[in-house]
Amino acid sequence: MRVTILGNNSALPAFGRHPSAQTVTVFGEVLLLDCGEGTQLQMQRYGVKWKNVHHIFISHLHGDHYFGLPGLINSMSLLGRIAPLHLYAPAGLRPIIDAILAVADTRLCYELHFHPLPAGTEVIADTDVFSVTCFPLQHGIECHGFLVTTKTRGRRILPDRCKEYGIAPEYFEALKRGEDHTMPDGTVVKNAWVTADGPAPKKYAYCSDTVYTESFLPLIQGADGIYHEATYLHQDAARAAMRHHSTAIQAATLAQKANARTLLLGHFSSKYKELEPFREEAATIFPNVVIGMEGMAYDL
Ligand SMILES: [Zn+2]
Ligand SMILES: [Zn+2]
Description:
Layout: E1 2-7, E2 21-26, E3 29-35, H1 39-45, E4 53-57, H2 69-78, E5 85-89, H3 93-103, E6 112-116, E7 122-126, E8 130-136, E9 144-150, E10 156-157, H4 159-165, H5 172-176, E11 181-182, E12 188-189, H6 191-194, E13 195-196, E14 203-207, H7 217-220, E15 225-229, H8 237-242, H9 248-257, E16 262-266, H10 276-283, E17 289-291, E18 297-299
Parallel strand pairs: 3-4, 4-5, 5-6, 14-15, 15-16, 16-17
Antiparallel strand pairs: 1-2, 1-18, 2-3, 7-8, 8-9, 9-14, 10-13, 11-12
The structure holds zinc ion (2 copies).
One zinc ion is lined by residues 60, 62, 139, 209.
């Protein structure tokens, strides 16, 4: 599972930083989480191929989280996209997209499936390689976080043991599914003799704009990675609360309580030019913290 940051600033672009967008790559499938202004340019800059994007998730309808979407949707059509695209977002986004397409008499050359987000905690996407659960955040308007979980790819083949028992590679898929193997003479080779546990599923929680809340803590417990907004430093905690945002200390507190492995910070206010103080502040609570720098890829 790889997270690539495309935008790490809050409401305004500043100091070369862009509004919120990031991708999560799972077995070659690219999930786009939020789509702030300029996202398609950032995708080009950092080599994110739109052909690999089939699922886009929008946390809420503040412009810094979706103003890049109409452009991206339009470009995909101009570039001859055929594959369907699934868009998961608050219900209010649909008439906006419909109006933008209608006034220009634009017909997309691919199917755009709109999935309005539910109010509660619910699995909203479920494929062979990943699932996504949305959960409510507290941000003054309807706002959602997303938990991306990879699917296990089955058991891991032990080639030397298979060779010992004389099992040909054509039977490996069945072994990966956990089946025992029956030899031509009727002897049964137990699955556990020739395979080992596959890689454990990974969990990545995307906590977009929110005040500090532990309401979703049980869901993200033990996550391999947590992204949490840190719009302000602790000295501006009162302003953070007033504007329904969090501080670096609060993001770190949540990561620590969730027993996460890694914390990624982002959504920095334009009042801060330097970002290192965010890392320093969070590290006093949770040591494995990184600043989500644009263009950087983080393997979880
Ligand atoms: Zn925002
Ligand atoms: Zn917001």
